[in-house]
Amino acid sequence: RDRDDGLAETDMREALQSLDPLWDQLFPAEQARVLQLLIDRVVVHPDRLDLQIRVDGLHTLVADIAAARAEPRAA
């Protein structure tokens, strides 16, 4: 991280870790939405892969997951 974007590393890590067990349950369209939200650019090199993440997408994902956790569960 080259700049202070207002996101705590722990919040980002927690959001991405909570997404992991849900990934296989998402419809392909939802998976595509999450990827488009998070990934700005992918550059493939012979020896590595460069992935640029959308910081605003991380903000949105963290906020969406936090909101989902705060919603009361229906009985």
Overall description:
Strands 1-2 form a two-stranded antiparallel sheet. It is built from 3 helices and 2 strands; from the N terminus they run H-H-E-E-H. A hairpin with a 4-residue loop joins strand 1 and strand 2. The chain is globular, with a radius of gyration of 14 Å. The N and C termini lie far apart (42 Å). By secondary structure, it is α+β, with helices and mostly antiparallel strands.
Kindly summarize this structure in a few lines.
With 75 residues, the chain is of the alpha+beta class.
Spatial ordering of strands, largest sheet:
1-2
Ranges where pLDDT stays below 50 over 5 or more residues in a row are none
Oligomer: single chain
Helix/strand structural class? alpha+beta
Number of helical segments with 4 or more residues: 3
Cα separation of the termini: 42 Å
**Rounded to an integer, what's the Rg over CA atoms?**
14 Å
What would you call the shape? globular
Features:
two-stranded antiparallel ribbon; 2 strands; 75 residues; alpha+beta
Topology:
Layout: H1 9-19, H2 28-38, E1 39-44, E2 49-53, H3 55-70
Antiparallel strand pairs: 1-2
Helix pairs in contact: 1-3, 2-3
